[in-house]
Amino acid sequence: MTGKPLPSPTAETLPFWQACAEGRLVFQHCATCGHAQFPPRSRCLGCDAPGPGWRESARLGTVHTFTVVERAPSAAFRGDLPYAIALVDLDEGVRMMMNVRGTLDGLAIGRRVRVVLEPNDGPWPLPQAVLLGDTLDFASLAPGRNFGTHVEVAGAALLERWSELYPTDTLPPGGTPAGLANVLVMRAYLALVQPRPPGNVHAGMALRRIAPIAAGARVHTTIACTGRDERPGRRFVTFAARTCTEDGAPVIEARLRLAWAC
Amino acid sequence: MPRILVPVRQAVTEEAILAYAALTGDRNPIHVDAAFAAATPMGGRIAHGTMSLNLLWQSVVATLGEDAAFGLELDIRFVAPVRIGDVVEAGGEALPDGTVWNVRVRNQRGEDVITGTLGPAT
Fold first, then answer.
1. A125-150: pLDDT as tens digits
2. Cβ B25–A211 below 8 Å, yes or no?
3. Contact A190 B22 (CB under 8 A)
4. Would the pTM count as exceeding 0.90?
5. Of A166, A242, A162, A159, nearest to A206 (Cα)?
6. Residue A217: how many CA atoms within 13 Å on its side-chain side?
7. Do B70 and A210 touch (CB under 8 A)?
8. Is the Cβ–Cβ distance between B104 and B115 less than 8 Å?
């Protein structure tokens, strides 16, 4: 990864890169006319209103087009060959350019992808695409199947939203509220367990907080399927979530039980 | 030693559900799309389960304090949907041995929407 060009935030793009650093993919959405745009600009391209607001993407999209690079533009890229560059249409209506990471098998126009924020030598992770497999049906959810790790910062963006929702909840100084553990686990589950069939119902949850999470802490949550069972008329899948701090100290342990739709 | 959880309440509004969808990234149309939800067996939008579950953690911390709440496992089932216009209240009481609590979130009609236990890790 050394020697690759890294982002240089400008006044317009800094909020985008700061969100990337926190594990969130954001885009501009104009409150006046509803236009969504990327890359960030100081005015709305739809109606020219100043300072369009920001919205968070669900990080799912479709490949609009792509190319596979066989010849490195510089020595820094040689180790990646062959690599893909794709224009991805996010479901929210903006287009971003990114690499495709992981397998390129099945890369095609129209293929569904999810976006991950890829660390590099600099402070600003880069959005990159990963091909989505087929919709996760009940049969595909084998015990032991690992869905990977989601990285997130328990930062101001989440805490401000929390305080608006639960104004009577007093935050521990420099810390995060107990219930934020649920939010961190759910955000990881929603990002990693893709693509889910529509209609799943959250049936139950067990969660234990092992150690405090400081405000602004970067945490890593790993999700794995731990089992599935069938009752008359209903199928259930259970997942285990494990959240650790950057230095590997466990902070949350949880089990999620979902009534699976298909 | 407290034996009753401090009750914590929330009025479930459309704004709260949309705000919780933004906080968690869970924009499942059953929560945020009125037309979609009306056509499902739920018959209308329902709140995210964990939105009410968070009230239980607030209740636990308010009762036992920050430090004592670590290491305890909250193990619950979502037993009934929560609708816009509901007022939900989290609470619970300790069992005689003092280490395990019966916990719940109830709506304004006294119906349980979440039930479960709080206690040592299982």
1. 999 999 999 999 999 999 999 999 99
2. no
3. no
4. yes
5. A242
6. 24
7. yes
8. yes
